[in-house]
């Protein structure tokens, strides 16, 4: 062998060794090594779950999920209605930034260059797919081609055949027929069963491929109408389900705060004046819990599918509700307000590689934090303009002192129960460690038309507005300043 050939061989060998060592030291860039994401959205789900301390709820699968990861006890949406909440989460930007306050505005009208959460994953080599309601299904706001590798499925549900199953309801007209339905039918009779079935098939296909996936699965219950297979109704005895606490509006609350969204009133078995009999209250609450258990069963199927396919260890599971829900408490039904029951949501993460089992934290967090958290967990660089913070540090140490406040808002029209765009008045709210404070501001002038202050340490049900009492003057001043300072000032110092 010539000296030249020998030298070349030594050089090649050294290059091979160096490359091998470098590969061991650096994180793998191959798609197969990237964690997958199962992103589960549940519509209108307040923390009516066993793992959140609800003694009525039968939710073994979500309870188990919480035991295998971290549960955020105090998570809050940015606006308690579907489209603004979901679009804020998916963009990592707050409603006033994306200028989405209603059900008809597309976020790209105000922020055309925003990179959505699934879009970020797609741009980093993931196959992204949406099955069910992720964005607000029903029109333009549900569409965003940049976010998904393939067309969304079951994102729009306008077919009564997938909402109802009984002969009586199938003969009806419009989308709003009976507010509840008990039918002895398989899970796949309703849209959520079909969503689950399609998601199971997607997971099976993903298990055969090397490309990492971001699979978003959006369940539509427990949104009205409360329709679920009979077996889930049978999990509960109606008389054993507690009636709503304090079915009156909070004392001293401004009318703007307690105005009905008029969502329930549109159903054929609900009076147009919004008066709900005790018998109907019991039926509605029973139906809500039946729907929660229905969704819990479907979530269980997806989690089992992950395990059976060997995807469990390398998949980040994130389960969240888009906003809470009132079931007669405080004299309110559905959502569209700034109170705890509408603003607080369930939020659970599981990722065996980086999240310890059975962790709970009382740190104040927001849905807008999900974007930076998922990207952080998966090692992706996030856009600089996000308006949430990564929760990974809080996952590592649940006792950390976190945000000073969580921010929620809701608009009102001065003359109607519904609003268009920003409305005439915006209710800006903050939830601190032990208080909730709200300012109802006229959009055109900034004039404050009403204030609310609830001392949650002594009034956890938010039934007495203290804002106008002399003894609260100093507290109101401090809370007002915290609200006006905004989310950046309230954020933790080590996100």
Structural class: alpha/beta
Question: If you average the pLDDT, what whole number results?
Answer: 92
Q: Going by CATH, what is the homologous superfamily of the largest domain?
A: Alkaline Phosphatase, subunit A
Beta-strand portion reads: 15-25%
Span between N and C termini?
Answer: 60 Å
Radius of gyration in whole Å, from Cα?
24 Å
Tell how many strands the DSSP assignment holds.
16
Shape: globular
Description:
- By secondary structure, this protein is of the alpha/beta class.
- The chain has two domains: 31-404, Alkaline Phosphatase, subunit A (3-Layer(aba) Sandwich), CATH 3.40.720; 408-490, Arylsulfatase, C-terminal domain, CATH 3.30.1120.
- The protein is 29% helix and 18% strand.
- The protein contains 15 helices and 16 strands.
- The protein has helices at residues 3-25, 60-67, 82-91, 95-98, 117-123, 167-170, 191-206, 230-233, 255-258, 278-308, 340-343, 370-377, 392-396, 473-485, 487-490; strands at residues 36-42, 70-76, 127-132, 180-183, 213-219, 226-229, 315-321, 326-327, 333-334, 344-345, 347-350, 359-366, 406-412, 425-431, 435-442, 448-455.
- Strands 1, 2, 3, 5, 7, 10, 11 and 12 form an eight-stranded mixed β-sheet that branches. A four-stranded antiparallel β-sheet has the order 13-14-15-16, with helices on one face. The chain has a two-stranded parallel sheet with strand order 4-6.
- A hairpin with a 5-residue loop joins strand 8 and strand 9.
- Helix 2 (60-67) packs across helix 10 (278-308).
- The longest helix is centred in the middle third of the chain and has 31 residues, at 278-308.
- It starts with a helix and ends in a 5-residue tail after the last helix.
- The model is unreliable at 1-32 (pLDDT under 50).
């Amino acid at each position: 062998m010539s000296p030249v050939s020998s030298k070349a061989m030594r050089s090649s060998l050294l290059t091979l060794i160096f490359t091998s060592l470098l590969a061991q030291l650096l994180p793998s860039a191959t798609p197969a090594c990237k964690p997958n994401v199962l992103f589960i959205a549940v519509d209108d789900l307040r923390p009516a779950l066993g793992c959140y301390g609800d003694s009525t709820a039968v939710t073994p699968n979500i309870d188990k999920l919480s035991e295998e990861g971290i549960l955020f006890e105090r998570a809050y949406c940015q606006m308690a209605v579907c489209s603004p909440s979901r679009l804020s989460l998916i963009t990592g930007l707050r409603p006033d930034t994306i200028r989405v306050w209603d059900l008809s505005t597309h976020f790209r009208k105000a922020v055309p260059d925003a990179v959505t959460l699934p879009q970020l994953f797609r741009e980093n080599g993931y196959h992204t797919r949406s099955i069910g309601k992720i964005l607000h299904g029903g029109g333009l706001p549900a569409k965003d081609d940049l976010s998904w590798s393939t067309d969304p499925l079951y994102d729009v549900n306008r077919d009564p055949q997938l909402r109802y199953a009984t002969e009586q309801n199938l003969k009806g007209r419009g989308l709003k027929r009976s507010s509840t339905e008990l039918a002895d039918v398989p899970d796949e009779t309703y849209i959520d069963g079909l969503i689950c079935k399609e998601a199971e098939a997607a997971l099976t296909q993903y298990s055969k491929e090397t490309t990492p996936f971001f699979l978003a699965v959006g369940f539509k219950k427990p949104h009205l109408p409360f329709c679920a297979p009979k077996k889930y109704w049978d999990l509960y005895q109606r008389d054993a389900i507690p009636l709503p606490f304090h079915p009156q509006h909070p004392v001293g609350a401004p009318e703007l705060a307690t105005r009905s969204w008029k969502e329930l009133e549109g159903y054929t078995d609900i009076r147009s004046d919004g008066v709900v009999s005790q018998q109907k209250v019991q039926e509605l609450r029973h139906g809500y819990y039946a729907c929660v258990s229905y969704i819990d069963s479907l979530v269980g199927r997806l989690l089992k599918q992950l395990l059976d396919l060997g995807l469990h260890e390398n998949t980040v599971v994130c389960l969240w509700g888009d906003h809470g829900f009132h079931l007669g408490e405080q004299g309110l039904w559905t959502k569209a307000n700034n109170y705890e029951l509408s603003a607080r949501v369930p939020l659970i993460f599981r990722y065996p590689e980086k999240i310890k089992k059975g962790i709970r934290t009382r740190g104040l967090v927001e849905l807008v934090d999900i974007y930076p958290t998922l990207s952080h967990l998966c090692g992706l660089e996030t856009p600089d303009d996000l308006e949430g913070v990564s929760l990974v540090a809080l996952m590592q140490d649940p006792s950390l002192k976190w945000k000073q406040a969580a921010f929620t808002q809701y608009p009102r029209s001065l003359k109607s129960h519904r609003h268009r765009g920003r409305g005439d008045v915006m209710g800006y709210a903050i939830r601190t460690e032990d208080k909730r404070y709200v300012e109802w501001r006229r959009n055109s002038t900034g004039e404050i038309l009403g204030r609310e202050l609830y001392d949650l340490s002594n009034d956890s049900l938010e039934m007495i507005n203290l804002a106008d009492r002399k003894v609260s003057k100093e507290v109101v001043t401090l809370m007002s300043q915290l609200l006006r300072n905004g989310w950046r000032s309230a954020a933790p110092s080590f996100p």
